[in-house]
Design brief:
- By secondary structure, the protein is α+β, with helices and mostly antiparallel strands.
- It has one domain: Alpha-Beta Plaits (2-Layer Sandwich).
- Helix content is 28%, strand content 33%.
- It is built from three helices and four strands.
- A four-stranded antiparallel beta sheet has the order 2-3-1-4.
- Helix 1 packs antiparallel against helix 3.
- The termini are close together.
- The relative contact order is 0.34.
Length: 102
């Protein structure tokens, strides 16, 4: 069964502080080891001179053990708690998933 890469880009609201951004990503990182099948989480601010970020300032990548693990993560109560912290801070978000070949 293929692993799933789940990645997203965030544009935070103008009034959101760097401390609040750190809290958002800390809450997201805390899901690893608490939600079955969520294998890792990486994040960071946009860092390229290419300028193709369309106003998005931060990104993240998660790896799930399988499409089923990703599907079970989406409604998971811990994910819902994290969304309650993160989503109110966002102006825009894009999330995109793809499967890694076997």
């Amino acid at each position: 069964m293929p692993q799933v890469k789940h990645y997203g880009c965030f544009q935070f609201k103008a009034q959101i502080t760097p401390q609040q951004i750190d809290e958002c990503f800390a809450s997201m990182s805390s899901m690893v080891g608490r939600i079955p099948g969520l294998l890792d989480f990486n994040h960071g601010p946009y860092d390229s001179g290419e300028g193709l970020n369309d106003g998005f300032t931060h990104g993240f990548i998660m790896t799930f053990a399988s499409p089923q693990a990703r599907d079970e993560y989406l409604p998971h109560p811990i994910h819902e708690e994290v969304k309650a912290i993160v989503v109110p801070c966002l102006e825009r978000v894009v999330v995109f998933d793809f499967n890694l070949p076997l």
